[in-house]
Amino acid sequence: MIMKTNVTILKIAVTLVLLLNVASLFAQDRITLNIAQDAKFLFIGDDRGNDAGTLDLLFRSEWQGKQTSVGYMLVAPEFEYSNLQGGDYRRYSLNLGYTLTFAAPFEFTATAGYGVIDRKHVGADFSAGAQLEAAFAISPNFKLYTAYQFTERSDLYEYGTPTRGSGFIGIKIGLFKTRGR
To answer: Which of the 8 DSSP states describes residue 158?
Structure first.
């Protein structure tokens, strides 16, 4: 089990490095790395055998557009990994959104995206999603944030819940500004 977890972490790290290299070609202003954990799985668990402390990590890289007087557009590739009872859950998605920055040091973001869910007992299937987020800037390159995510979950149709909401808590790390700005 430990070896499988280490291989999964290595795959995630390689994927993030590749994404950040591609991001530097497309971002207009700044690139961030966001890492969050599902708060319910961290503190409570659920009624399907996932205890408190269950790993459900959300990795996102925000490629920020040019800052305007009220905010900026963003593109955000995203990867979610969860070690659930019944098999690992993976979701890969691409999101488009807008961040409002007029209430510094707070920021508010709304995104929508489309991607693929990969789950052992179901296979791969397409998935739409949306996320609302509030962040607090500790510094220009470090922010704390909370997010609520709605995701179409084809792997949960058997439970009658094709759309699932999840609350996340995490950090945003500003990696660098692009093109020498």
So the answer is: G
